[in-house]
Design goal:
4-stranded mixed sheet, Dihydrodipicolinate Reductase, domain 2, binds iron/sulfur cluster, 8 helices, alpha/beta, 2 domains, 40% helix, single chain
């Protein structure tokens, strides 16, 4: 049995919230560098240099990379042989998120009621997705998800006869409609299969595919590459100023679905990629 203290979870989540908001990952900085090298258009290069410089200034001063410090989305993966000592796991997550936004001086962006729209004042509640596993596995993946990109996401219950070409067209049309709104270069998470609620979650998980330890499937990689090429030929470009880098990555996750259904969801993330896996 693996024992984890309640306070350790709180502290790890608090520190991770501050880190993902203020410290760009080396992967993100490398994406900026590759995109700068790849662009021909001087304006697009300049925009990308500004994005990279902004991220480095954020790290040096421990200030947020973007003013929209996001909704905290938490993927909790917990084994049956894990015991949390000293408290309840969901309360630890809430407290870690609360402290992260408070102590990191991060913007509180959550309203308690979508109609009356009073800010909760502490960025609570986070959105928690729990996965119960066998054994003593225990990890938490945390995202700070901005609204500008989230708002451009889409879900469609397609007809099975729409097939792969229909899916690709839906992705291209969604990104084209989004234009500069999701703060490109974007990451496009695509969920295919499951059902109505399941496919939305698949698309969200696709955004963190790089840290999910999913074996490479060459047939899916080929579809991702094809869609990415199509999206990068739309000339949206960094922050909508045109150019070859509208999209950093396209990531697809698939699950089985009903014979009469073809659910497809597209979840978009902006150029500020903010996620981290905490392994206990
Ligand atoms: S979409 Fe991303 S870059 Fe744009 S405002 Fe929101 S968090 Fe910031």
């Amino acid at each position: 049995m693996k024992k984890i203290s309640y306070n350790k979870i709180i502290n790890s989540i608090r520190d991770s919230i501050i880190e993902i908001n203020c410290v760009p990952s080396s992967e993100l900085l490398n994406k900026y560098v590759s995109a700068i090298e790849n662009e021909d258009n001087e304006l697009s290069k300049k925009v990308l240099r500004n994005l990279k410089e902004n991220a480095i200034i954020a790290q040096e001063n421990m200030i947020p990379i973007c003013q929209d410090t996001g909704t905290a989305v938490v993927f909790l993966n917990i084994g049956t042989e894990v015991v949390i000592e000293g408290g309840y796991i969901n309360e630890a997550i809430f407290e870690g998120v609360r402290l992260g936004y408070q102590e990191g001086y991060l913007r509180k962006s959550i309203v308690g009621n979508p109609i009356s729209r009073i800010n909760t004042g502490d960025n609570l509640p986070p959105i928690i997705h729990t996965n119960i596993l066998k054994g003593d596995i225990f990890n938490i993946i945390i995202l700070a998800k901005g609204a500008g990109s989230e708002n451009m996401s889409a879900l469609k219950m397609m007809s099975p006869s729409d097939g792969l070409e229909g899916i690709k067209n839906f992705v291209v049309q969604t990104v084209k409609n989004a234009g500069a709104n999701p703060c490109p270069p974007i990451t496009v998470g695509v969920g295919i299969g499951s059902n109505f609620e399941g496919v939305a979650l698949l698309a969200k998980r696709a955004l963190i595919k790089d840290i999910l330890d999913i074996p490479v499937d060459n047939s899916i990689t080929a579809i991702e590459t094809d869609i990415k090429n199509k999206l990068n030929s739309l000339n949206i470009g960094p922050q909508g100023f045109g150019g070859k880098t509208s999209v950093f990555d396209v990531a697809i996750l698939m699950e089985p679905c009903h014979i009469a259904s073809l659910p497809v969801a597209i979840n978009i993330n902006c150029h500020v990629i903010r996620h981290k896996k905490i392994i206990f």
